Amino acid sequence: MTLGEIHCHSTASDGSLSPMDIIRLARSRGLKLVSVTDHNTWRGSTLAVRAAKILGGVVVLPGNEVRTDAGDVLVYCDKPQPDEETPTELESLREWADNNGCILVAAHPFHVGRKSVGPRIRKLAGLFDAIEVWNSRGIPLLNLPAMRLAEKLGIPATSGSDAHVSRELGTSPVILPGEPRGPDEALEWIRRGAVRPTLGLPGPMAIAEAVAWSIARRI
Fold it and tell me: Distance between CA 173 and CA 205 in Å, rounded?
C-alpha cells in the first residue's frame, strides 16, 4: 500500500515542524507523497521541494490552504505559485486554477468553527475537483456529511491529517495507486479520483502534542 500525506502545515504558517523536518519524518514513516499546505502561502511547499531534492524518497505536491471568501480551500499545483497572484475569491481562484493547471479541494467542509465552506458546498461543489471527506484533526462525526456528499455527487474524495505537530503527520493519508513519478502524476490521480481516503484518528499523545503546541503559540 502506497500512502501520501496531502494536508499538513509547517513553520511557514502555524505548524511546529520545518518543511525539511516534515520531509525527513515523512520518509521515516514510509510516505511517498507529501503536500505542505501552509495557510495562504506557497513558501512551505517551496522549501519542501528543496528538501525533497536533498533527501530523496518523497515526491512533493506543492500546496496551499487558501482562505477564500467562501471558506478554506486546498490548492494543489505542479509547482509553487506566487503568493501575491493566488486569488482569495473562490470563483476567481477556480479560474486561476484552470489557467495554471491546478486543482481545488474543499478542506474539512462541514467542520464548525474552522472557516469551512460549510453547507454552501452543496451549491459550490462544481467549483471543486475533490472534497476532503476525512480530516483527522476535526470531530469525526463532522466528516460524515462530506463523505455522503462526495458519494452522492460523484466527486473525488481525499483525506488528510491537517498535521501541525510531528505525531499527527500521516494520521489520515490518502492511498495512492502507486509511487508517483512527480507532482503532475499526483495531481492527475486526485483529479480523476484515483486516490482513496483513509479514516485515521490521532492518538492521545498526538492530541496532547497538538494542544501543547497550540498553547505555546499563544504565549
Answer: 18
- At 219, the amino acid letter reads I
Closest CA to 6 of 149, 136, 144, 98: 136
Q: How many domains does the chain have?
A: 1
pTM of the shown model: 0.97
Q: What gap in Å lies between CA 145 and CA 45, rounded to an integer?
A: 30
Helices (H), the chain: 19-28, 43-55, 90-100, 121-124, 144-153, 183-191, 204-218
pLDDT digits (tens, 9 = 90+) for 8-27: 999 999 999 999 999 999 99
Gap between the Cα atoms of 149 and 113, Å rounded? 20
Range(s) of the domain holding residue 155: 2-218
Name the band, by pLDDT with cuts 50, 70 and 90, for residue 219: confident
CATH of the domain at 66: 3.20.20.140
